[in-house]
Specification:
Layout (H helix, E strand, L loop, with lengths): L2 H20 L3 H20 L6 H17 L3 H12 L6 H22 L9 E6 L10 H22 L12 H6 E7 L5 E9 L15 H12 L4 H7 L3 H14 L8 E6 L6 E3 L1 H14 L9 E13 L4 E6 L2 E6 L6 H4 L6 E8 L5 E8 L2
Antiparallel strand pairs: 1-3, 1-4, 2-3, 4-5, 6-7, 6-9, 7-8, 9-10
Helix pairs in contact: 1-2, 2-3, 3-4, 3-5, 4-5, 6-8, 6-10, 8-9, 10-11
C-alpha cells in the first residue's frame, strides 16, 4: 500500500477512536488508536526519505497515536528513534520532545498508587524572570493556585452547581477531581497537571465525565481570551460563571513584568491556549463590556494601585494602601474569595466609584505584578 492509502486508513481509525473517547468508551478508543498508530507507522516506513516535511509530520502523528493508545513503550521507542535522525526538522523535534514529556508523565502516574483520569494539561511559563527549568517560587505557587481554582470551577460548572461565592469547594468535589502537579522536563518552566479519579461523582445530577474536564477546562480558557464574545457565551451560558472564569483567567495572565506568557495545552491533541499581555487586555475589555454602566452623574469611576492589606467578604469591604495612603472600599457585591483571596499582601489595581460623602464602592480588582 502507498503512503496515502495507509495514512487515510489511519485517519479513519483515529476518527473512530475519538468518537469512542468522547462517548466514554475509553477501552475501544485505545484499540482504535492502536490500529491507527500501526497504520501510521507503516505509512512512515514507505515515505520517500527526501520528503522531509511529510516524513516528520507522519512521525509525530504515529508517536501521538501510540501515546493515545496508551502503548507508551512503543511511542517512546519511535520518538527516540526519530529524534536520533539528524534530518528531522526542528518543528517536529519540538513536538516529539513534548510527546516524550507526556509519555514520562503518564509513566509516573502509572507507577503511583493513585488512579488518574485520562490525559493531563501541560503548563509552560515563559519570559521575564523565568529561566530554563527555574522560576520564582511565589510566582509559580500563585499560578498553580489559579489553575486549581479554575479546575474546581470547571467541575462545578459541568455539574450544574450554583456558583460558589465563599469558601473552598465541597469535600466531594475536592475528593472526586483532585488536581495533582507533575514535574515536566524543562524548556522555560514547565509542569503538568493531572486529575485524581476517586469515582465519587454521585453528587451530580448527571455524571460530569471527569475524563473531559481537562478538555472543557482548556476550551473555557480559550474562550475567555477570545475577541468573539459569542464563543464564551455559548460555552458558558450562565453570566455568573462567565464572570468567574474571566476574572480567574485574568489572574492567570501576565501583566508583562515578571513573566511574558503562560501556555496551557492538553496531552490528547487539544489546541493550546497562550495567555500574554495582549490576552490580559482582551479579558479586561470583555469584563468591562459586561460591567453595569454608572448612571449617577455625581459619581465617577477611579483607579488606584497599591497593596491589598485586608479583605472581608462577609463584612463587604477591602483595604488598599499605597505610600501610606489607605483606601477603604465597600460594597464588594458578588466578589469571590478565590479571585480576591490570593491577592492579599500583593500589589493590585482596584477600580471603584466615588459617590456622595466620599463613599468608595467597589467595581473591580486585579493583580499588578
Amino acid at each position: 500500500m502507498s503512503w496515502i492509502d495507509l495514512h487515510r486508513a489511519s485517519e479513519t481509525a483515529a476518527i473512530e477512536a475519538e468518537q469512542n473517547f468522547r462517548t466514554g468508551n475509553a477501552r475501544d478508543a485505545e484499540l482504535f488508536y492502536a490500529k491507527a498508530a500501526e497504520l501510521e507507522e507503516q505509512a512512515l516506513g514507505v515515505i520517500d526519505a527526501t520528503k522531509l516535511r511529510t516524513r516528520a509530520i507522519t512521525a509525530v502523528s504515529a508517536v501521538s497515536l501510540w501515546y493515545k493508545a496508551a502503548v507508551y513503550e512503543r511511542a517512546e521507542h519511535l520518538a527516540h528513534s526519530m529524534l536520533g535522525d539528524p534530518a528531522i526538522p526542528q518543528f517536529a523535534r519540538m513536538e516529539l520532545r513534548n510527546l516524550v514529556q507526556a509519555i514520562w508523565t503518564e509513566s509516573s502516574k502509572q507507577a503511583a498508587k493513585v488512579n488518574f483520569i485520562p490525559g493531563q494539561v501541560f503548563v509552560s511559563v515563559n519570559g521575564g524572570d523565568i529561566i530554563t527549568g527555574a522560576a520564582p517560587l511565589d510566582l509559580i505557587i500563585e499560578k498553580v493556585q489559579m489553575i486549581q481554582a479554575i479546575f474546581y470551577r470547571t467541575v462545578e460548572f459541568i455539574g450544574d452547581m450554583p456558583l460558589r461565592r465563599r469558601g473552598r469547594p465541597i469535600r466531594e468535589i475536592q475528593e472526586s477531581c483532585r488536581p495533582w502537579l507533575f514535574q515536566a522536563p524543562p524548556g522555560s518552566y514547565q509542569f503538568a497537571v493531572a486529575i485524581q479519579d476517586t469515582k465519587q461523582l454521585d453528587l451530580f445530577k448527571e455524571d460530569p465525565r471527569p475524563d473531559l474536564v481537562a478538555h472543557q477546562f482548556l476550551e473555557i480558557l480559550k474562550a475567555t481570551a477570545s475577541e468573539d464574545l459569542r464563543q464564551l457565551e455559548t460555552l458558558v451560558p450562565k453570566p455568573e460563571y462567565r464572570d468567574a472564569f474571566l476574572k480567574l483567567s485574568r489572574n492567570l495572565a501576565p501583566s508583562g513584568k515578571s513573566f511574558e506568557s503562560i501556555e496551557l495545552r492538553g496531552a490528547r491533541g487539544d489546541a493550546s491556549v497562550a495567555f500574554t499581555l495582549e490576552a490580559r487586555t482582551q479579558i479586561n475589555n470583555t469584563i468591562k463590556s459586561y460591567r453595569p454602566v454608572t448612571t449617577e452623574t455625581t459619581e465617577t469611576e477611579e483607579e488606584f494601585t497599591g497593596t491589598l492589606r485586608a479583605v472581608d467578604l462577609e463584612k463587604d469591604y477591602l483595604d488598599v494602601v499605597a505610600v501610606g495612603q489607605p483606601l477603604h472600599i465597600v460594597e464588594l457585591g458578588d466578589a469571590m474569595d478565590d479571585v480576591i483571596g490570593p491577592m492579599v499582601n500583593k500589589k493590585v489595581k482596584v477600580r471603584f466609584v466615588r459617590g456622595t460623602r466620599d463613599l468608595l464602592r467597589f467595581r473591580d480588582i486585579e493583580l499588578e505584578e
